[in-house]
């Protein structure tokens, strides 16, 4: 069960003097709930409009970096003067059709913004605040110069009520632990992001909000000043920190990796003699370049193929060819035939950053030959790109990235609507997968129920 914030309503202020509505109209805009988890749907409802009246619903968010993001949809009120985002279709804007969460997943930088932006939450103890406004007619620009008919504010949280955040600096391991509300025992997850490095916490916070003790692990600096190498034992030590936490059922711990974190997760499942994950989730990654050696040497192997990179018509960097063709030499890939736990692999078919589709196909072939393909589930999404995030996160097709000391714009791929659908569907199935294999484990200690 997802913890709830309460059902406070957000009411918009009324505009009493609109040229189109007259002087006595009092349109009302509600967003319910006004506070919720980022993966929780909200309802947007408008009342007190004339029938068949054109309005624009607009969302605006200021990121922690000070940049503004917006989305908007064109609506026409029904015979009762109402617009409800989960029943009425947007006729245009940044999204179309009946899309109750379109004002979030189609967010994009406002015109004139810096190039190459990516929207990511840094401080998970505070909410993502989004202002929802309604404007007269169908408009697509200069919203800051217009007077809204009504407004409401909604807070989107990664940390649910009662979730605790704990800094981890123990045994040489650096990360952040998120603890669900309650006495436990809970299942555990070790969460690893990709080659961009740094300590990324928001997915771990959201997993804890769904009842999993989760540690976001830092294993690469956020820049290219990577001089301190990381040995494979670092990941074993991080896993054991989660496993041995007093709130965790020690036989119910998973590893989850995105992009380069996938190589780490697969290597742990295949090669570790210290830890045995109950299950693994791998998003937008590959089994090429096993992590059974120091991390920096793996990066050096990848750099040897940088000449395979190319640029699209916008001068965005396409990186997926770096590992193509996939190597046939067994030592250059994780031996996924050795994996003995359930494995969920998620790929976007328009991934322009890494050859994830080809990697998933090769992994399936290797596991079939080894007789363990029954453990493998592949979710492959047409039109989705590399950055498959929690649901309703804005689709980022390309963004700034530091590569070999230079800032480039990396092409991640994906088309906005199918990518948004992939994020929503894959997150639901990730939670179901973890619930099935961690909370239905054979651990004799009873697990806390979600």
TrEMBL record:
| Segments crossing the lipid bilayer | none
Entry-linked InterPro entries:
AB_hydrolase_fold (IPR029058), Acyl-CoA_thioEstase_long-chain (IPR016662), BAAT_C (IPR014940), Thio_Ohase/aa_AcTrfase (IPR006862), Thio_Ohase/BAAT_N (IPR042490)
Q: Which residues form the BAAT/Acyl-CoA thioester hydrolase C-terminal domain?
A: 231-439
Query: Could you tell me the Gene Ontology terms of the biological process aspect for this record?
Result: acyl-CoA metabolic process; fatty acid metabolic process
Occurrences of domain Acyl-CoA thioester hydrolase/bile acid-CoA amino acid N-acetyltransferase (ranges)? 39-170
Q: Which domain of life is it from?
A: Eukaryota
Active site, UniProt feature: 259, 351, 386
Pfam families noted in UniProt: BAAT_C (PF08840), Bile_Hydr_Trans (PF04775)
What GO molecular function annotation could you give as one example from this UniProt entry?
fatty acyl-CoA hydrolase activity
Q: Which family does it belong to?
A: Belongs to the C/M/P thioester hydrolase family.
Record's protein name: Acyl-CoA thioesterase 18
Whose protein is this, by species? Paramormyrops kingsleyae
